[in-house]
Amino acid sequence: MNVWEVKDVCTKVLDGINRYFVGNRLMLRKLLAASLANGHILFEDYPGLGKTLLAKIYSRVTGCVWRRIQFTPDLMAADILGTRVWRMAESKFVLEKGPIFTNILLADEINRSPPKTQSALLEAMEERQVTIEGETHRLTAPFFVIATQNPIELEGTYPLPEAQMDRFLLKLSMGYVQTKDEESLILKRRIGWRRDDPTGMIKPVIDQPLFVAMQQFIETDIYVDDQIVDYISDIVRLTRGHPMIEVGASPRGGLSLLKVARANAAISGRSFVTPDDVKMFVNDAMGHRMIMKMEYAIEGAFSVASILKEILDQVEVPKQFESDNR
Ligand SMILES: Nc1ncnc2c1ncn2[C@@H]1O[C@H](COP(=O)(O)OP(=O)(O)O)[C@@H](O)[C@H]1O
Ligand SMILES: [Mg+2]
Q1: 257 Cβ below 6 A of ligand 1
Q2: Domain assignment of residue 180, yes or no
């Protein structure tokens, strides 16, 4: 495998998604980058913007095994992980595996379940293994969660605890489609599908072994210069010292930035990371790990996003990459 092949395959995957999902290529690219970095992705947006649909399309196009859990107020940990049941015929307990044993787990409306249930996902997301009644089980590769949530100001939601937020590599939002043509295209596609959910009609563009091979290629073959490492460290450290910030980005935030930047280089057909690969993800990889001081948050003139932008303007960009404005 080489980096041009990776670019080629990635373009096919993105085209495959866009055959069903309308718009926002940049967001789709970020989704692809995060999952190629084996990271979990949180989509936050208002209902009806296509979060569930996109997660289904994506799972299908990548040829991975996927399961969906609809989070509800009465969902229990065992509904996610599984449980041991008594098999009469064999006179023994056997593990009935829960939906977590999959490649892509669609955790839909994750903030509608109470924290205790949400935290059942924690070990799985971080360790890529689960413990059920004292027994530890490894999860398959790849394994990542695509979670969706409605904005927390909507009624009947339990905001994810900070520890859980930090587990997501990226937090993305879909946004509305931009143009009237795109709006119409959603309607026309629906007429063509003759049903609400096109998932059953979608053919995989790649398969699970190729997906894993690309993940490994990114791990081993995408070069990260020391200057890029310094650049990321500078950004992360500035989030901590900022006067308006209560809690800055964690080291995991810096690692996240590194991982997605590498994946993005590969998607672009480039074997090394540039500052632009990093910049592109600063908000999505770090924003959800930071908390503003209450007085500034209430005042409303600044946001985590505006502070991150300020930090980016302040940090010195590595010189030898300066002309790279792809
Ligand atoms: N960008 C889009 N492209 C194609 N269909 C869309 C898009 N956005 C919304 N839809 C349509 O709107 C409906 C609602 O989407 P859904 O995924 O259930 O939203 P959410 O999970 O965000 O509440 C779906 O049936 C889907 O067909
Ligand atoms: Mg939904």
Answers
A1: no
A2: yes
Among 76, 14, 4, smallest CA distance to 206 is for 14
Q: What is the CATH number of the domain that holds 196?
A: 3.40.50.300
Residue to probe by mutation, ligand 1, list 49, 111, 149, most atoms within 8 Å of CB: 49
Shared domain for 45 and 155, answered yes or no, is yes
Q: Are residues 85 and 195 in the same domain?
A: yes
pTM of the predicted structure, to 2 decimals? 0.93
As for how many domains the chain has, the answer is 2
**Which DSSP symbol is given to 292?**
E
> Domain range spanning residue 256?
222-315
Ligand 1 pocket test: pick from 27, 53, 149 the residue with the most ligand atoms within 8 Å of its Cβ: 53
For residue 181, give Cα distances in angstroms to 103, 115, 173: 35, 41, 21
pLDDT, tens digit (0-9, with 9 covering 90-100), for 45-89: 888 899 889 989 999 999 999 999 999 999 999 999 999 889 989
* The predicted structure's pLDDT at residue 322: 54
Cα dihedral 57, 14, 191, 42 sign? positive
